[in-house]
Amino acid sequence: MTVVTRFAPSPTGYLHIGGARTALFNWLFAKHHGGKYLLRIEDTDRARSTEPAIAAILDGLSWLGLPWDDEVTYQFSRAARHAEVALDMLAKGHAYYCYASPQELDEMRAAQKAAGKPMRYDGRWRDRDPKDAPADVKPVVRLKAPQTGQTVIKDAVQGEVTVENAQLDDMILLRADGTPTYMLAVVVDDHDMGVTHVIRGDDHLNNAFRQLQIIKAMGWPEPVYAHIPLIHGPDGAKLSKRHGALGVDAYRDMGFLPAALRNYLLRLGWGHGDDEIISTEQAIEWFDLAGVGRSASRFDMAKLTNLNAHYLRETPDAELLPLVLPRIEEKIGGKVDDAGRERIARGLNGVKPRARTLVELADNLAFYARAGAPPISDEKALGILTPDARTVMAKLAPALEPVASDWNEKAIEEAVRKFAEANGLKLGQVAQPLRVALTGSIASPGIFEVLAVLGPAETKVRLLAAAA
């Protein structure tokens, strides 16, 4: 048997973090078993489904590195097929027309509520002759569900779960206007797409009992269900925006790397011993449903950020450069020329260990981007460039010229130390204004590293600008 999984989001908003984890688990399970991972857009809610939301989902999955196999399936376009199955069930006696009017149904529910009973359809048209149907009511098609016994799901995560069939009513398959319901559409699509494993959030577990009844009525193969626990916030409450329940695009904007986010989502509810840093190759090799826990996992932004810092350090400079350059250009409000790009490339490795996100990396590299004096907006930094400090910078510029032919960190440090000693200054009295003059900030990579990256000509330009 070829394993086939699917991710089936509704395009009513962004690809949220819980959906991204569901997609990841489906993708990994399919890859682990050499199978297929399919994408279905469940766009039957026409009032809420939007093209921008579809685009955001496709873009989010692509950025996250979870490419799907085959063409995307759009559920709404398959409405005729869904209706065909409902009519087939009618012909086989597994479904029936219900002519109960909306007013009747409201009265039925009100009576049930008043009696303290569960509010569900009472089957009043289950065995009635359609000849008795009122002429002014368009019927719906309802499933003729079993009324006795149990429906059992052997869930790959939750274990064996059972519901009494008496608790389930005859749900609607086709509405009065002939459009299929979500429950019917999901089952038909999963069958037609050859889905063997339905891996989704455990908020869908109750749906599975009803969907399984349709599957059995049609005599179709039952998929393996795996309902994974939801993600909670650090406080144990349902994950919300205040916890970080944002769209995947927001994490991209915040400067997280796809590999880091995949690794973090993998460890939310799944484990492999004490392993925390897990490459994509290892994840594909190790992932199986047995490793998914039954308890809700807790989202921790600090942990994600620290994990991202690890991935930043491990990512080769050549791969980081095209990711960070657009952010630097956005920060400085213009294009980086070839010389600036070269300085950024030389300085990247020294800045990486100090950054946790691409945003921080861009912030820490921006002073390399443009030639000339960097802008100084921080009051503390401006306060360091006193008239005396500016005089020191003016003197330092020519003092560094002898090492221009052998411009490296060791030679530069030695020259600066000799300059400080010759002028009766402590090293800090030179290094602090030097840092501000070269970077525009009181915080930067090691000052001698900065000098080495800038080069003798650019260093002189910035020192003289500070002196002026």
From TrEMBL:
Listed name of the protein: Glutamate--tRNA ligase
Glutamyl/glutaminyl-tRNA synthetase class Ib catalytic domain span: 3-305
Limits of the Aminoacyl-tRNA synthetase class I anticodon-binding domain: 322-466
SUPFAM superfamilies listed in its UniProt record: An anticodon-binding domain of class I aminoacyl-tRNA synthetases, Nucleotidylyl transferase
GO MF entries: glutamate-tRNA ligase activity
UniProt keyword NAD present: no
InterPro entries per the UniProt record, alphabetical: aa-tRNA-synth_I_cd-bd, aa-tRNA-synth_I_codon-bd_sub2, aa-tRNA-synth_I_CS, aa_tRNA-synth_I_cd-bd_sf, Glu-tRNA-ligase_bac/mito, Glu/Gln-tRNA-synth, Glu/Gln-tRNA-synth_Ib_cat-dom, GluQ/Sye
Functional summary from the UniProt entry: Catalyzes the attachment of glutamate to tRNA(Glu) in a two-step reaction: glutamate is first activated by ATP to form Glu-AMP and then transferred to the acceptor end of tRNA(Glu).
Chain positions recorded as ATP binding sites: 241
Catalytic activity: tRNA(Glu) + L-glutamate + ATP = L-glutamyl-tRNA(Glu) + AMP + diphosphate
Similarity annotation: Belongs to the class-I aminoacyl-tRNA synthetase family. Glutamate--tRNA ligase type 1 subfamily.
Complex and partners: Monomer.
EC number(s) per entry: 6.1.1.17
Native source organism of the sequence: Reyranella aquatilis
Gene3D superfamilies xref list: 1.10.10.350, HUPs
Entry keyword set: Aminoacyl-tRNA synthetase, ATP-binding, Cytoplasm, Ligase, Nucleotide-binding, Protein biosynthesis
Superkingdom, taxonomy of origin: Bacteria
Motif segment ('HIGH' region): 9-19
